[in-house]
Amino acid sequence: MNNELLESLMKQAGIASFRELAKNAGVSQWQIKQLRGGKIGQMRVENLQKIAKALQMSVGELLTVFEMSEPVKSIAVGEWESEYKRLQEELGQQKSVLLQSFREETLQKIESWLLQWPTAAYAVQQKPDIPATRLLPLVRPVEQLLQEWGVEMIGPVGAEVEYDPHRHQLMEGSAEAGQRVKVRYQGYRQGEKLLYRAKVSVV
User: Fold this and answer.
1) Which of 2, 8, 35, 153 is most buried, by CB atoms within 10 Å?
2) Computed over its alpha carbons, how large is the radius of gyration of the chain?
3) What residues does 160 pair with on adjacent strands?
4) Which residues partner with 181 through β-bridges?
5) Is the CB of residue 181 less than 8 Å from the CB of residue 200?
6) Helix, strand or coil for residue 26?
7) What are 65-92's pLDDT values in tens digits?
8) How many secondary structure helices (H) and strands (E) does the chain include?
C-alpha cells in the first residue's frame, strides 16, 4: 500500500524510481525504504522535508497521504514546528551578526570623517571666516561610501536643467515638463529607486 502511494506521488513529480527519489531529495535509500515500510513516524523531520520537496508537496501533505495515526502525526508535526522555530531563531541571530558587521564596516569607511568633522565644525564656530574650501575634503569619505552603495546625485546644486516632475520637486510656483529650472538642493537615487527628488526653482 505504501509502495503504491509513493509510486503515485513519484509519477506526479516525474520521478521514475526510488533510487532517483533518494538522489533528488538528497537522502539515503534507507530513508526511502523507511517511508515505504510505513515507518514515517520514526523519520527525522529534515529528511521528510527533503522528500516532500522532491515530491513537490509539503510535509503536512506527505503525512496526510500516508495516513499517519493522529498521535504519531502530532509528534511529527510538533517536531517540525520545533525545527522551524529553531531555524527562525538561527536566522535571526545571523541577521543580527550581519547587521553588526555592516555597521562596523561602515564606521571604518567614514572613520576619518567621524574623527575630524566635529573638530572642523568647532573651528568654524570659533572662526567663522575659515574658507569653506578647507572643509570640503573632510566629507570625501561620506561621498565615497555613497558611491560604493550605488547612490547617485540628481543635480548638482546650481545646475540649470530641464524640469522633470519624476526627478524634481518645485520649491514654489509651477512649471511644465522641459522648462528650465535651477537645482537648489540635490536629490539622490539608488539604481532605479528614487530616494529624494532634487528641489528646484523656476529660472
Assistant:
1) 35
2) 31
3) 182
4) 161, 202
5) yes
6) coil
7) 776 544 444 555 566 667 677 777 888 8
8) 8, 7
